[in-house]
Design goal:
Layout (H helix, E strand, L loop, with lengths): L2 E7 L21 E7 L7 E5 L1 H19 L4 H8 L1
Antiparallel strand pairs: 1-2, 2-3
Length: 82
């Protein structure tokens, strides 16, 4: 199964005011994102996001990838050790 998360930079030379982040609606968007999967029931997602939300998307995407592959995260390993 191939899942993809792609980012592109918003054109800062554009004379229009910056779009708000479509995820938090607070900060101006710095990136465009596109999420896709070859899973039949998955619908493509795309929008614009700020740096903080881009970081959250990337972290969540990595956690999902690890969960699907059966890898444990450092957070999971710490929970087991305690």
């Amino acid at each position: 199964m191939a899942d993809t998360l792609a980012f592109s930079v918003v054109d800062l030379a554009d004379s229009r005011p910056p779009y708000p982040c479509s995820l938090c609606s607070v900060k101006p968007a710095s990136f465009q994102y596109h999420i896709d999967s070859d899973e039949p029931t998955f619908q493509q997602l795309s929008g614009s996001c700020c740096l903080g939300c881009a970081n959250n998307l990337l972290s969540s995407f990595e956690e999902l990838r690890r969960a699907r592959s059966g890898e444990s995260t450092s957070h999971d390993a710490d929970a087991v050790a305690n």
